[in-house]
From TrEMBL:
Originating organism: Rhodanobacter aciditrophus
Membrane topology, as annotated: Peripheral membrane protein
Role according to the record: Could be involved in insertion of integral membrane proteins into the membrane.
Family listed: Belongs to the UPF0161 family.
Protein name stated in the entry: Putative membrane protein insertion efficiency factor
Matching Pfam families: YidD
HAMAP family, A to Z: UPF0161_YidD (MF_00386)
Lineage of source species: Bacteria, Pseudomonadati, Pseudomonadota, Gammaproteobacteria, Lysobacterales
Region entry Disordered, spans: 75-95
Major subcellular site: membrane
UniProt-annotated location(s): Cell membrane
Alphabetic keyword roster: Cell membrane, Membrane
Amino acid sequence: MKQTSRRIFIKLVKGYQYLISPILGNNCRYYPTCSAYMIEAIERFGIIRGTWMGLKRLSRCHPFHEGGIDLVPEKKSKHSNQCGCGTKSTEDSDR
């Protein structure tokens, strides 16, 4: 069910990219574009958090903001090596 809902949200954003965005023109002040950012955020963090991150990004995309490069942050590991328990996270096991 989660994957289906996620795909529906992503298809809605892609529909905007292909149907509405070409009419409005290239106005995004960021790289990647706000719609690409929202798709990546939904894929990485899920519908609720990803959509929230995308909407926050959209609220900053206006002529009075300089824009620039704004990538979707990496998803943090649920286990921190700083806890001192000695358990390795999946990121550390690759080293």
